[in-house]
Design brief:
Elements (H helix, E strand, L loop, with lengths): L10 H15 L1 E2 L5 H6 L4 E2 L7 H6 L9 H77 L2 H8 L7 H10 L1
Antiparallel strand pairs: 1-2
């Protein structure tokens, strides 16, 4: 009487079976996965499973399944990044314009300060010149008229001159 060893079907066998079914039911990929491309084997995908028949059979990861959903996900991610990039560039341009405007305002303030300094210097020079002229006029007044001349000019009071008494006394 024969004895049967009851064993589970190995996963290798199941993989091979699945690979065969995918290979028979699936379609050849427009672009083979990198494993099939490297091995030169036919890359066949079933729409229901993301691995090609060869990668299923060999039990290796498969990167060749073209998934519209994955592609669309990448596309929407890419569009988000593009929008962020445009926004960033727009901000940069706006900030560059603002920076230029600030620079122009700073320059105009510097010019205004320069004009203030020039006006103040001119005013100071004029004031100094006027002071010099006033000093010269005072000096001319002091040098040009001594006390006697001033007394003669303004009229000295009678008998106030000390020299006059002696003169009158000697005469009398
Ligand atoms: Zn493949
Ligand atoms: Zn593959």
């Amino acid at each position: 009487m024969p004895t049967y060893k009851v064993s589970k079907v190995s996963s290798t066998c199941r993989r091979k079976g699945l690979a065969l079914r995918v290979a028979s039911l699936g379609g050849v990929a427009v672009m083979p996965c990198s494993a099939c491309a490297a091995a030169g084997s036919l890359c066949v995908f079933s729409p229901q499973y993301p691995k090609c028949s060869e990668c299923i059979r060999r039990g290796v990861p498969c990167d060749g399944n073209f998934s519209e959903a994955d592609f669309d996900r990448l596309e929407s991610e890419k569009r988000k990044l593009e929008a962020a990039l445009w926004a960033s560039l727009a901000r940069q341009r706006k900030e560059a314009v603002e920076a230029e405007s600030l620079g122009q305002r700073i320059e105009s303030l510097k010019k205004a300060q320069g004009a203030m300094i020039a006006r103040e210097a001119q005013s100071l020079e004029q004031a100094e010149q006027e002071e010099r002229q006033a000093q010269q006029a005072n000096a001319a007044l002091e040098v040009g008229f001594d006390e006697q001349q001033l007394a003669a000019f303004f009229g000295a009071p009678e008998g106030s001159c000390s020299g006059g008494d002696n003169l009158q006394g000697s005469q009398g």
